[in-house]
Amino acid sequence: MAAKGSWTKALFTGLWTVLNFARKLVFNLIFLVLLIGVIIAISSSEDPISVKPDSALLLQLNGNLVIEKEQVDPFSQFMQEAFGEEPENPEVLVRDVVKVLDNAKQDSRIKALILDLSGLQGGGLDKLRTVAAAIDDFKTEKPVYAIGDYYSQNQYYLAARADHIYLNPMGGVMFEGYGRFGMYFKDMLEKLRITTHIFRVGTYKSAVEPFIRNDMSDAAKEANKLWLDTYWSQYKADVAAARGIDVSNFDEELDVLLNKFEEAGADFAKYALNNGWVDALKTREEVRQELVALVGTDENKLGVNVTPFNTYLKAVNPPLPKMGNTKDKVAIVVAKGEILDGNQPAGTIGGDSTARLLRQARLDDTVKAVVLQVDSPGGSSFASEIIRQEVLELQSAGKPVVVSMSTYAASGGYWISAPADKIIASPSTITGSIGVFGMFLTFEDSLEYLGINTDGVASTEIAGMSALRELDPRFGEILQRNVESAYRQFITMVGESRGMSPEAVDKIAQGRVWIGSQALELGLVDELGDLDDAVASAAEIAGLESWDTQYVERILSPQEQFWKEFFGQALVWGAKMQFADNDSHLMKMVKNLLAETGTVTNLNDPRGVYTLCLQCKVD
Question: What are the distances in angstroms from CA 505 to CA 8, 110, 258, 497, 510?
Fold first, then answer.
């Protein structure tokens, strides 16, 4: 027995030794790979922050323009950079673009600006307008060239600011206008025998229509058509002014487009040239030669002496620790994304996390005023109220709050904006949508069809309610009353904040969407302007003669800060991985379906009551 025990002990000891060795080997290999990457990055011959003398600034914007980037795990970001991969949904901070253009305008090393907008996706007319203003300011001192094989509608908005717009002879420019089309699931839900329970207030509150209809209601069409037409009119006016053409020079009817297209020999490039949208048709080599004559050659893909946008950004925004100062500040708190309950990462508004940012500003003695920059279609009514309460606390502390509305500030986005001392919207801001809804699905009929039954007992009539059982009509009535109460709270709060009666608010509420210029006429906002106007207004209300601006961001834990800085040093150090093409029509359709349904499934209001505008999309 003793010999057998010794043998068993030796076996387990040997197995543990092997496992322990394997564990150490794996972790050592991971550490070795990371170490090699850092060494190669440090020893790289490339200088990532070198601004080349007598060069052109190459502005390549890849992805969507945003006021706040979504939070990315540092390790994931490291691996993307290491293997040369782009994020699935790349983003560009508007304030980074403006900062680069402002600095480059005064930089003697930069002789011109080249706009290569092939990777730009969009982000909203207000963000495009902010970047366009920075380009206009740049070209008061130096020339601007727009080069491209094709220009989408969003890309052309910025290209129109250039002194020289060149288009590939095989390329084209196409203006589509703006539309809002979505998927409707009523028939599908009925086929799956899923019961949809809807509770809402507001004639125009169309957020739940995809789940109860097969088409858009007349009321939703009326409201959407009005703001989409205004949005399109603003786009045309801006582009026409930049190019010096008439606003009628946008072919919105297919018959007109067809006739002009045939006159251009069925050539999209000539069609764009004939309409005055571009200055010349030039091949890539012809464009390259013109740019070489301007700034010289260099050994890069373009063959022109350029300083890329990302390189220049690193030069003007080095990764150095911020030094604190005691100068009076106007703090900027960004509220971007859907409003969800609890703590949420950057790029999404969390009731707790966004309120905490406002609290940071309130408790900072150097902060004298706050600008809440809102870019949100809404979401959880409970989370919206938590944020609104923190805005009131700021005001009670003697710190004025000014709201700067970006692309969206609708439903819950308006809820958190309403109590501000002043609301400044972009002319194209999509706002209003003052309405409330609740929704959930039950699957009792689906389970019955599959031969599955639910049964049991409970101590009360309320216990045991779930998505697996039929909803008691009396409880449904309770939920409807709850939604109606939330709506009354919404319009009463707006009325008190805006100096209007609840009845007056109700007339322009009912879930209806308004564009910024219309919201000004209706009294929902105070002025039309941008973030700079909001900062200046906040400083004026606070009585500040000089001030600094400061973005309030979540304070990282020591561990988070370590890994952010560690992986932040990552550069390309490995072979580029190749992935299968996911850009098929089927994949696009699947992504659209997931996007349509994902917004609703992510909602987490503890009461199941939402102030959300699903129709507020323009890109």
Answer: 80, 52, 46, 11, 9
Whether 509 contacts 493, CB under 8 Å: no
Stretch (H or E) spanning 336: strand 329-336
- C-alpha to C-alpha distance for 266 and 605, rounded to whole angstroms: 54
Q: Has 384 been annotated as catalytic?
A: no
Q: Annotated catalytic, 399?
A: no
Nearest to 144 by CA among 119, 117, 118, 169: 117
Structure tokens at 487: 């709506």
Of these residues, 411, 417, 497, 517, which one is catalytic? 411
CA dihedral 321, 357, 536, 365 (to 10 degrees): -70
Catalytically annotated residue among 52, 69, 205, 236: 205
374 in Cβ contact with 404 (< 8 Å) = yes
- Residues sharing a CB contact under 8 Å with residue 205, sequence separation 6 or more, in sequence order: 433, 435, 436, 437, 510, 511
Residue 548 bridge partners (DSSP): 329
What tokens appear for 254 in the block?
A: 């297919």
What's the CA gap between 493 and 501, in Å, rounded?
10
Would you say 400 and 538 are in contact if contact means Cβ atoms under 8 Å apart?
yes
pTM of the predicted model over 0.90: no
Let me know if 37 is exposed, middle or buried by CB neighbors in 10 A (0-12, 13-18, 19+).
Answer: buried
All domains in the chain, ordered by first residue: 55-175+251-316 (3.90.226.10), 180-238+324-569+608-619 (3.90.226.10)
Q: What angle do CA 245, 57, 271 make, to 5 degrees?
A: 30
**Dist CA 528 CA 429 (whole Å):** 9
DSSP secondary structure of 167-229: EEEEEEE------------HHHHHHTTPEEEEEEE-TT--TTHHHH-SS--HHHHHHHHHHHH
**What is the distance between the alpha carbons of residues 265 and 12, in angstroms, rounded to a whole number?**
82
Average pLDDT, consecutive stretches of 10 residues, N- to C-terminus, the chain (619 residues): 56 65 64 56 53 95 94 59 65 96 96 96 95 98 97 97 97 92 92 90 78 91 92 97 93 92 95 96 97 93 93 80 74 96 90 96 97 95 95 98 97 96 97 88 91 91 86 90 91 96 93 94 97 97 96 69 48 35 46 52 67 72
